[in-house]
Write a structure and sequence with these properties.
18% helix; 1 helix; 3-stranded antiparallel beta sheet; two-stranded antiparallel ribbon; alpha+beta; 5 strands
């Protein structure tokens, strides 16, 4: 059984780190909270809205579909599909 859910949080209650770019999202900012089960393990991640959109584009470009493995956490540029230098 698999599970995947994206939830938009309009105003965060505590600071958290974006999975995609690694930048801190301050209290009160908007984030995308993603929860899923992958290969039997539960994962929960936080994204800036623009980083979440970039991750979907990256997956589609890499795998040609809406699913696939993401790159290492905190390794991509904010809102883009390029790796950090």
């Amino acid at each position: 059984m698999s599970f995947f859910r994206d939830t938009t949080i309009k105003s965060t209650r505590k600071a958290c780190r974006c999975f995609w770019c690694g930048e801190v999202m301050p209290i009160g900012s908007t984030k995308i909270y993603t929860a899923c089960v992958y290969e039997g393990d539960f994962f929960a991640t936080n994204y800036h809205p623009e980083c979440h959109a970039a991750s979907l584009l990256w997956i589609k470009a890499e795998y040609g579909s809406a699913s696939g493995e993401l790159p290492d956490q905190h390794s991509m540029q904010r809102g883009g599909i390029e790796e950090k230098p």
